[in-house]
Specification:
Length: 359
Amino acid sequence: MGQAFETWGNPSSSHAHGRQANEIIEKIRRLIAQVTGVSPLEIVFTSGGSEANTLALMGSFFLKKPGLRLLTTTVEHSSVRDTASLLESQGVSVDYLQVKRSGVFDLDAFERQVTEFRPTLVSVMAANNETGVLFPLKEISRICREKGITLHTDAVQAFGKISPEEWNFCDLISITAHKIFGPKGVGALIVRRGTPLVATHYGGAQEVKRRGGTENVLGILGFGGAASELPTREEIENIRVLRDSFEKGLLETLSGVGLNGADVTRIPNTSSIRFEGISSEVLLGALDLEGISVSAGSACSSGSISPSHVLLAMGLNKQEAKECLRFSWGKTTTREDIDTVLRAVVKHVTRIRDRKRKA
Ligand SMILES: Cc1ncc(COP(=O)(O)O)c(C=O)c1O
């Protein structure tokens, strides 16, 4: 990214400094296209996953086509949920698909709902950000294709953790740099060839008129750096092994502990755990004091004390949802890290429960 500080030209300018900045962007565009298995022309750089999701939904709404009808799920990221609510307030018909208790996507219900509701756009995430549960995008895509429905997927959590072949066939795809160890504030919407979309940002012809505004050259360079160092298959498998051993260790050592999304196919880096009788805020604070950063719900919504909509949609009640923590592992996680976190969690859960018992 340091290179971008020296490349001060505006990528839209035709002088040498501008061309230099533009070359950087185009180089990274080719790289992101290569690692996601799409064409460079299909990449629209954005300020991150939230903007990509908003662009996908709003950009479909602004099309001069017969009314948008949106089908999405009850466990999407708030950027999809809030945009769907806004569209609903503007008269768009929106319907929500319920997930099964363990967070599993209900394909039969989806097929029924598609037939009855007749959406023009389906927005379904590839992997859930709170539980890591994967959705069956290949089957979802087959149903959408048969009925001529545009399919958007929020692949923010899936990118870099499962093969792009599991999601790159969708028509609109959101990704973000900070989920692959890149900088915050940069991402992309992949708009597959032939997918109609109207821009939601105006002011210039950047990104082939699909996203006006001077590009974030610095961020895009960082995005490229991260994309060139995506975890290898072995590294991903290593994360899965470590994550599984953490969950196993926890379930074997402590009683009253439950794994959200147990026995369901998940991305390899996420553990969503319920500690019965313990407020997630209290346990989060205790772990924070030990230098261990975990989240209650998703990081994006952990500033609020309301229980996670994802866990509620999975059938947990409000009390149960407020007893859950999310642990996220990565390619830098070591066996020692797992042991340290496991010891700390067991210590604090035992201490908090003892204190409650004596009170
Ligand atoms: C599934 C999912 N979608 C979208 C986003 C938003 O991405 P960004 O923070 O880049 O706006 C997040 C954020 O973590 C996420 O987990």
